[in-house]
Amino acid sequence: MISLSPHLSMEEKQKTVFNFKDVGATRKIFDLRKRIRAVTGGTAASKTISILVWLIDYCLDRRNINKLCTVVSESYPHLSGGAIRDFENIMKDRGYWNEKLWVRNPTTIYKFETGNQLEFRAIDTYGKAHGPRRDVLFVNECNNLPYNIVDQLIVRTREVVWLDWNPTSEFWFYTDMLGLRDDVDFITLTYLDNEALDQTTRSEIESHKHNRAWWQVYGLGQLGDLEGKIYVNWQIIDDIPQEARLEKYGLDFGYSVDPTASDAIYKWNDSTVIDEVIHQKGLSNRQIAELFLNLPRASVIADSAEPKSIDEIASFGVPIFPSTKGSDSVRQGIQVVQDQKIFITKRSVNTLKEYRNYLWKVNREGFATQEPSDIWNHHMDDIRYAISSGKGTVVWEPGDPGGVQPYIQGIG
Question: Model confidence over 140-169: pLDDT tens digits?
Fold first, then answer.
């Protein structure tokens, strides 16, 4: 998913073998020329990776001297699990990585041998946008940041500004920039621009053509309006409040295709606080048990469709119970969650992404049904299991070692 740097020698190009393949998305991004380069599109379209390739190429170009490039997102966990990880993988794949040039504190920054620097910053307030000027800016998933912050960042950028996003709904780019400035390049990419995409992922994307709202945004990369959002008005907080009390964990099983997902559920006065704790593919039941045994103790409410997995995890000493199931239990559980005043930690990156994209299914006429979509739902399901369940918090007697069977308060 990357193009070969034009600044490599012919001998270097002939010796270099990449796991990241050159694709149409990258070529289209390298063709953009205006100051503001806006890239929207669907899922798996190689937007972020292709822009990172351009930034790496820019920093390696010895014609650029002492340049500063800044990658910005709404939170550091979002950067760490996305752009930072992709950047490191690309650099290592191309044979450019030098651990000695990678600085993580106080700012995450890679200092290229050319003298150019690429930094990664979380900027979620207007005050943080008032920092040093830079030469190149990349705002990753820019629709998650308010316009006044991005506008201040753009004003403080001397050369090129990159923006990328999934077009889930209209936001400030469409109302305050598009058509109002003559220095904007605007392109749309889809999974079809990523020829290196594996067939499994391609088939998975295309299997959702029946969901018109989802397909409009994530398949075709076109501006949508996700009015069928199931949950709204969750508030992002920096961390778990000291006064919050851990109640339980939700658990949704996954393995090869879907991740195992779990979130901690806290009570804070009259509110609920959600904190993502597990999001990983390929976990065995033993590994899941080990993860929970190393977390603060509380009951785990898991998908009741997997009784064998629940029994095996319980055998390792984890206080795990099946979720409540029954006629209309999914819709009723969603209603219970909707009735909560919910806060979510900013490090809950995967849970936040699902929250923003969790929709009601639509029928052939395009109207929302009362059945949730079967995508963007792993953390949404585990949260529903935990919040709508009557199972209470595990209480451990003083001196109990890990693995001793607890007693449960409030089982209903």
Answer: 999 999 999 999 999 999 999 999 999 988
d(CA 149, CA 130): 9
The CATH number of the domain where 68 resides is what? 3.40.50.300
Residues 207-241: pLDDT tens digits? 988 777 788 888 999 987 656 789 988 999 999 99
Residues 252 and 331 in one domain: yes
DSSP 288-343: HHHHHHTSPP-EEEE-TT-HHHHHHHHTTT--EEEPP--TTHHHHHHHHHHTS-EE
36 and 180 within one domain: yes
Domain hosting residue 404, numbered range? 235-408
The answer to whether residues 246 and 128 belong to one domain is: no
Is there a domain that residue 51 lies in?
Answer: yes
Q: Is the peptide bond before 401 cis (omega within 30 degrees of 0)?
A: no
The string of pLDDT tens digits covering residues 331-390 is 899 999 999 999 999 999 999 989 988 888 776 666 667 788 888 899 999 999 999 986
Q: For residue 3, is it within any domain?
A: no
Which DSSP string corresponds to 93-147? Answer: HTT---GGGEE-SSSEEEE-TTS-EEEEEE--STGGG-S--EEEEEETTGGGS-H
Q: Are residues 107 and 21 in the same domain?
A: yes
